[in-house]
Amino acid sequence: MINKILIAEDHEMSTISLQKVLDEIGVTQIEYMYYCDDALASIRHAISRGNSFDLLITDLCFEMDGQEQLINSGQELIQEARILQPELKVLVFSAESKLSTIEKLYNELEIDGYVRKARNDAKELKIAIEEIEKNQRYYPRHLMQLLKQKNVYEFTSFDIAILTLLSEGIRQKDIPEYLQRQGIRPSGLSSVEKKLNFLKEEHKFTTNEQLIAFCKEYGII
Amino acid sequence: MINKILIAEDHEMSTISLQKVLDEIGVTQIEYMYYCDDALASIRHAISRGNSFDLLITDLCFEMDGQEQLINSGQELIQEARILQPELKVLVFSAESKLSTIEKLYNELEIDGYVRKARNDAKELKIAIEEIEKNQRYYPRHLMQLLKQKNVYEFTSFDIAILTLLSEGIRQKDIPEYLQRQGIRPSGLSSVEKKLNFLKEEHKFTTNEQLIAFCKEYGII
DNA sequence: ATAATTTTTACGGGAACCCGTATTGGCTTA
DNA sequence: TAAGCCAATACGGGTTCCCGTAAAAATTAT
Question: Which residues have a Cβ under 8 Å from the Cβ of B108 and sit 6 or more positions away?
């Protein structure tokens, strides 16, 4: 049974609606944290008092604001939380819609559910929590839709590494040494050229500039 | 006095928290619409019954979902709403953080306030509504921060024309003929080169790719 | 282990880009 | 009108990028 929930979320408005939704399904013990570091400390503290959380509801993206934080993403928070409390259930509530990111959450971080901030997110949250309560993973409806239309090209971390370097003003011919320094393989200039050609071909683009513009437009880099 | 509010927002969770916040400041008449088309119809209907809205709170980005809509952005909704009811107050509540987008809202659509979905957005919403109630425009705090770090250089329409062509995949050497076709002067290749060099010099950039990335990042193109 | 296949890297010629200099064209002023 | 000035354009050589082919390395299969 899920009674004690920790919410890690920096948007005040999201915490308000989460409170309302959790009220409606009868959850009484809710704690809010606006920073990942605080959330982690709270988990640690609850364990030490023998009153640990049943569920962590967390966003993925936390905005920087002046004070430096050790952890600043939902992914890291989940990772650290699982070290402290391996059986803790985790429900991610975020606006992220990139398939690869969500797949990683399920496969690598083994989250129990994902609800995207979108139409009917409140209803979906309730269903997700119900499922998790029954020890079942919850897979969101929109994820299924995304899996169907998987014709869209997914940018790999290699693609993004190259595109990021380009967008930072690194010359194409210098990219190999940067890749090597970061331990990314392959790193040959030909591989970089080939990849850029492929990406342009794939999207019917003609120039690097157009490719960079596209990636910026859609938040890929 | 603001008594009757229309909310155009597709995220269910956002409407829940908006309801809570508006309850707390004593607003009683609230209507929710999950699509721009419905929101516009609602405004029209309210006017025809002589009971028009005092304030429109709207998101900017509405997600497509199957059924086709005539209008699908907050910007268009505001524009159409102002045609129907010019004195209608407008408060935008969105996650958008691009300075140029927000500036356009204030300057071109003459909105009365902008609150970004972020830390302390609930508190900010209350303040914004109070200000608007006093017939004053509300400028968000984070906008001021952005304005401070604003790039000193103002991009001219000539700059933007070139950068836009580049971002659309037009080769540098072909840009002159496009400029001529659009009646833009100067149009020589040397002038294009000179301008791109100047822009890169100005921002301490090395490549066109970096320049395009920057312009996309800050919504210049 | 060897062969087959794929992936990665190396190389080279031609196109596009970068950048400095020279020329042209339009505008102001004497 | 002519001289002077500034912006726009034209030109040329050096660099980088583009793109096809070939060699090398890594992976998989036999």
Answer: none
CA of B141: how far to CAs of B98, B122, B123, B148, in Å? 14, 14, 12, 11
* Separation of alpha carbons B211 and B221, rounded Å: 11
The answer to whether residue A148 neighbours chain B at the CB level (below 8 Å) is no
The H or E element containing residue B175 is helix B175-181
Confidence of residue B155 (pLDDT cuts 50, 70, 90): confident
- pLDDT tens profile A144-185: 666 555 456 778 888 989 999 999 999 999 999 899 888 888
Instruction: For residue A14, give the nearest of B143, B207, B4, B121 by alpha carbon.
Output: B121
What secondary structure letter does DSSP report for B172? G
Q: Whose CA is closest to B22, among B62, B60, B54, B63?
A: B54
CB contact under 8 A, A213 and B207: no
Q: Is B109 on the interface with A (CB under 8 A)?
A: no
| DSSP codes, B74-123 | HHHHHHHHHHH-TT-EEEEEES---HHHHHHHHHTS--SEEEESSTTHHH
Set of chain B residues whose Cβ sits within 8 Å of the Cβ of A119: 10-12, 34, 63, 65
Assess whether the previous peptide bond of A186 is cis (omega < 30° from 0).
Answer: yes
User: Whose CA is closest to B139, among B112, B175, B172?
Assistant: B112
Q: How many CA atoms lie within 13 A of B100 on its CB side?
A: 11
The per-residue pLDDT for B150 is 54
Q: Is the pTM of this model over 0.85?
A: no
